[in-house]
Amino acid sequence: MAKDKHDSDLTEKRIKEFVKNNIELLQKVEDFIDAGKENILFIREKSYKLNMYLANIKIMIITANEIERNTLFTFFAENTGYCIRKIGKGNLVFSFFKIGNSDVVHVEPTSTGAYTKGGTAKTIDAAIKRAKPNIVISAGVAFGLRPEKDDFGDVLIGRQHFSYDKGTKISEGKIDIKRLHIEEPDEYMLCRVQATIPTENPVYGRYNNKFKVVLGNMLTGEFVIDFEQFKNMIVSPFEPFGVVGGEMEAYGLFEEVKKKKRVHCVLIKGICDWGSGKNAIHDVAGLKYDLKNDLQTLAMLNTCEICQRFLVTDNLFSDESIRGIKKRFWRIGIGKLVRKTCCKSVSC
Q1: In 96, 102, 130, 205, which residue has its Cα 20 to 30 A from 276's Cα atom?
Q2: Can you count the helices (H) and strands (E) in the chain?
Q3: Which of 186, 156, 334, 151 is nearest to 257 (CA)?
Q4: If pLDDT is split at 50, 70 and 90, which confidence band does 21 have?
């Protein structure tokens, strides 16, 4: 109980410090949300055009909620003249836009979580079968686990994802791990992530806000974690693995992607809370703040900044590079491919 109280106090302290030091930034984030609602034009195309739009798609981005989706569209809408084209097919809505010169398709499950009804697993399975992308990016928000080291808006990139609700048993207020369930990107993608991740220097995002990127292990599961004691119970058995954050979609995402040939996947998510007090009203300097939407939008803005760095700025996922993926996989075994391709193209 003492640990729960200490963690809760630390979380509240970090929130107050962040708000006090970033009042102007949070106001700009609110303006960003409003601008997206006003400026973006959504064009609904006929379903018979879907195959034509999907023909050149190599990159798919999946989000999990409305704030993530709207922030993604607003961030990249200027590349398409503030027009997002949408096509519905079955239970999916495909949205098309550009990141740099690359055509990108977006999909989103109808509910959060991996194996919930309408969750990530079924959505990504159907979307990949239809779109046949080479790269899938799960972009969104996550909860952080190191408030003493990290900050709101810092971006987490998952190295290994530990499921806390599969192969575990809750007994007397503790989680007993019966069998570890771990999902992770393939070595090809991890190698390119490590070549791109700016760990030595801070990253400056929209509105010149400073944040950092952390490549580390993460927790994943079906629960919305919003209670300090419950969070500590879940985190405790995984502390030896150095987990830095958690979210809800990774397990289903990677399980489905690894069933498909020649598809790479990575998870990129910004910190929007510390696993408790998501909906709390915070008192900062005598003023009341409902920070949930603002912090989620800020976290997603920084996530988009890193997606842009991967796909455009550092040119590691250029169209030419992506086109070569299928040929290399077809000719060589996966293990040999990873070693040969990574060592030639990037320094890991």
Answers
A1: 205
A2: 11, 17
A3: 186
A4: confident
The rounded radius of gyration (Å) of the Cα atoms in the chain is 20
Residue 131 is inside which H or E element, if any? helix 120-131
Which residues make beta-bridge pairs with 273?
Answer: 143
State how far the Cα of 98 lies from the Cα of 100, in Å rounded to an integer. 6
- Tens of pLDDT, residue by residue over 223-255, are 888 888 889 999 999 999 999 999 999 999 999
Residues in the chain: 348
Q: How confident is the model at residue 17 (pLDDT cuts 50, 70, 90)?
A: confident
How many Cβ atoms sit within 10 Å of the Cβ of residue 184?
A: 20
Return d(Cα 71, Cα 36) in angstroms, integer. 8
Angle between helices 66-76 and 292-308 (to 10 degrees): 50
- What is each CA distance from 47 to 24, 87, 218, 236, 334, in whole angstroms? 43, 6, 38, 48, 36
Note the pLDDT of residue 201.
76
* Host domain of residue 204: 2-345
Q: Pinpoint the alpha helices (H) of 261-333.
A: 292-308, 319-331
Residue among 10, 345, 257 nearest 150 (CA): 10
Task: Give dist(CA 253, CA 251) in Å, integer.
Answer: 5
User: In CATH, what number is assigned to the domain containing residue 100?
Assistant: 3.40.50.1580
Total number of domains constituting the chain: 1
Helices 250-257, 120-131: inter-axial angle, 10-degree rounding: 30
- Enclosing H/E stretch for 253: helix 250-257
What gap in Å lies between CA 101 and CA 115, rounded to an integer? 34
Nearest to 161 by CA among 219, 224, 221: 219
Nearest one of 234, 205, 229, 196 to 312, comparing CA atoms: 196
Quick one: pLDDT at residue 108? Answer: 96
Token pair of 51, please? 């195959």
